[in-house]
Specification:
The complex is a heterodimer of chains A (84) and B (551). With 84 residues, chain A is α+β, with helices and mostly antiparallel strands. Chain A has one domain. Chain A is built from two helices and five strands. The radius of gyration of chain A is 12 Å and the shape is globular. Chain A starts with a strand and ends with a helix. Chain B is globular and about 60 Å long. Chain B contains 18 helices and 21 strands. The longest helix of chain B has 22 residues. In chain B, strands 16, 17, 18, 19, 20 and 21 form a six-stranded mixed sheet that branches. Chain B has a five-stranded antiparallel sheet with strand order 1-2-5-4-13. A five-stranded antiparallel sheet of chain B has the order 3-14-15-12-11. In chain B, α5 links the parallel β6 and β7. Chain B is α+β, with helices and mostly antiparallel strands and 551 residues long. The chains are: A alpha+beta (84), B alpha+beta (551). Chains A and B meet through α2 of A and α14 of B.
Chain lengths: 84, 551
């Protein structure tokens, strides 16, 4: 399972692509792609051209009780902030 | 200290105006990220894990009170009220907005500062001995030459697209407090037999994935020839440095591949061509810069005033702080006071805006309006009267800046690691916090004496782990954080790359393992041996046995 993440251009904040094709600060709102996410990736690219976000990429996620959750430590830290 | 003239001021103001325009064009979509990225990096603005990060240059680690207050205000106004002092004597702000970065840089320029030369394949912000101008063992003040290099190298058109980044460090003393032997160029001030000032020139040192100790290519370079000689080194590197492979592009690889002798030959041949260049005629500029660093009006000061002696006798905490955090000054009755940014359980190098403002006030009142940033991520009040130490200590204690641990086990260097950095593989800061908590007992830490622990979250080695007495390198093993241990490194005049001890240790076990290594040292040391001395006498074997012994 994968989701799309990026950084918002104006403040650099970490954001996630939602089902409504908007960007949310909350990882739990992230839309999940079970199979091929390349179409979604390309579609999200239009927001790069519109200068809304930068660095769109796919990340591995799992579904938990609270919603979409990243798998890797790096993406957990991006989603939930520094651990310190 | 150095003050901007109109040329400096116009230069940074123009840059701020340019960058504001570039930001506006990026936000409107006129510039793409590919076009904008090199422009923002030239101005010190990175995009990290959580936000933009602004890396502010603190040339040769010297600041006045107003500048530190400006940094504090910028951190408060545009960030989250704290900053992180780095091993490059810079300050990093972790939560900057792109649409406010121009305002932050304008505020910075108002205090004679900038964020240039903190990124890109150019000559980076020059670093220097943090005891410059005050150390008893100093030959000459390295900041005069560091400032000369700053002016020469800032946006130097010929050296703006080098094969890779280029770092120069200058120390004024044979003790080498600027880690010159692990820089692209290290300069050690010295005098020849006739008493003339010059430099030992060291090239090709560096850390990162291929750590190297620099090689001396000139035992004595007369002062006046500094810039033509640096230009010759940069020209040789610019032409012959490898551009085909980013990992082999630093000058250390060139020096390693062609050898020290050939490097020296090429540099001398290039130097011979420009020995009469305009750069060899900068005595007036050196004198102008030096005039900013002239003798301060030190008044008479009692080396052992009653107020200080009484407090030292009656207050063990004060006594311990004086023993570990103050150092001899070249003028009797004065000392150098180092402010540790490593409280137990704290984040190495972090200071809040309130702490910065308090320290700036201390510098204004007690240290001739001057401060230093060390490459070990601490601050220094360089000109302190012994009689003022009790008052200074009380302010530091109120600000939780009184950790009595300079060069002790708790004085850990740590890069931002995976908590902030887009390049990191593992976290550094939490490991530093846990180690400092484990060794929180001040008596025990002082008993262990000088121990330099340095932690990097990736092979780029911003935490200088290769030259730590104990170096920790975070690695990712199938999604788990592990730490490789190197022992026996040093960044001082006896510069040494540490040796890998054995297999990487899990995050859960790493603090226990560091403790086992230091307990082994405590058991095995002879006389006044430091950890590093014991390691050098005995080698890795006893430490390895203890580190990897089953619990």
């Amino acid at each position: 399972m994968q989701s799309l993440t990026a950084n918002r251009l104006d403040d650099g904040a970490v954001v996630y692509r939602t089902k409504l094709e908007t960007w949310s600060r909350n990882v739990h709102d992230a839309a999940v792609f079970e199979n091929d996410a390349s179409a979604a990736l390309e579609e999200a690219g239009s927001d790069v051209i519109r200068a809304l976000v930068v660095g769109v990429e796919l990340i591995d996620v799992t579904m938990t009780d609270t919603g979409t959750t990243p798998v890797s430590l790096r993406e957990k830290i991006r989603a939930f902030g520094p651990t310190i | 200290m150095y003050q901007y003239d109109q040329i400096d001021r116009n230069f940074v103001d123009e840059r701020v105006a340019q960058f504001r325009d570039q930001i506006a064009r990026r936000l409107s979509g006129e510039l793409t990220e590919e076009e904008f990225r090199p422009l923002r990096l030239t101005n010190g603005l990175y995009l990290q894990l959580h936000a933009y990060m602004l890396r502010i240059a603190i040339p040769y680690g010297t600041l006045n009170s107003r500048q530190l207050e400006t940094l504090a205000e910028i951190a408060r106004k545009y960030d989250r009220g704290y900053g992180h002092f780095t091993t490059r004597q810079n300050l990093q702000l972790n939560w900057i907005r792109l649409d406010q970065a121009g305002d932050a840089l304008a505020d910075l320029a108002d205090a004679d500062m900038h964020a240039l030369q903190t990124s890109g394949n150019c000559i980076r912000n020059v670093t220097a001995d943090h005891w410059a101008g005050v150390a008893p063992d100093e030959v000459a003040d390295p900041r005069v030459y560091a400032e000369l290099i700053r002016q020469w190298s800032s946006l130097h058109p010929e050296f703006s697209y080098l094969p890779r980044k280029f770092k120069i460090a200058v120390t004024g003393s044979p003790a080498d407090r600027a880690a010159t032997r692990v820089h692209d160029i290290g300069l050690v001030l010295k005098r020849d037999d006739a008493g003339q000032i010059g430099f030992e020139v060291i090239v090709g040192g560096g850390l990162g994935r291929t750590p190297m100790i620099g090689k001396t290519i000139r035992d004595f370079l007369p002062e006046a020839q500094l810039l033509p000689y640096l230009e010759a080194i940069l020209r040789v590197y610019n032409l012959a440095g490898r551009r085909d492979n980013m990992y082999k592009a630093r000058i250390k690889i060139l020096v390693h591949e062609i050898g020290t002798e050939e490097m020296s030959r090429r540099v001398e041949a290039e130097f011979a061509k420009n020995i009469d260049s305009v750069l060899a005629n900068v005595q007036d500029e050196v004198a102008r810069i030096a005039s900013y660093f002239t003798k301060l009006p030190y008044g008479p000061s009692d080396p052992n005033p009653e107020s200080y002696a009484l407090r030292r006798k009656s207050d063990p905490a004060f006594r311990r702080w004086v023993i570990s955090n103050t150092f001899p000054h070249k003028i009797a009755g004065y000392c150098i006071a180092e402010i540790s940014l490593k409280p137990t359980g704290g984040i190495p190098g972090d200071a809040t805006s309130a702490q910065m403002i308090a320290v700036a006030a201390l510098a204004r009142q007690y240290s001739h309006d001057e401060l230093r940033v060390t490459h070990t991520q601490n601050l220094v009040l360089p000109h302190v009267k012994m009689s003022d130490l009790p008052a200074i200590y009380d302010v530091l204690a109120a600000q939780k800046l009184d950790a009595p641990n300079v060069n002790k086990v708790g004085d850990i260097i740590a890069c931002p690691g995976l908590d902030y950095c887009a390049l990191a593989n593992a976290r550094s800061i939490p490991v530093a916090q846990r180690i400092s908590e484990r060794f929180a007992d001040v008596d025990r830490a002082h008993d262990l004496g000088e121990v330099k622990i340095k932690i990097s979250g990736c092979i780029n080695a911003c935490g200088h782990h290769h030259v730590g007495h104990i170096g920790l390198l975070g690695v990712d093993k199938n999604g788990e954080e592990f730490y490789q241990i190197t022992l026996g490194g040093s960044e001082a005049a006896d510069a040494t790359i540490g040796t890998l001890l054995g297999p990487a240790i899990s995050s859960d076990q790493i603090v226990d393992t560091v403790e086992k290594i230091l307990t082994a040292y405590a058991d095995l040391r002879q006389g006044n041996e430091r950890f590093l001395d014991t390691y050098r006498r005995l080698g890795a074997k006893p430490f390895k046995e203890r580190a990897y012994a089953a619990a």
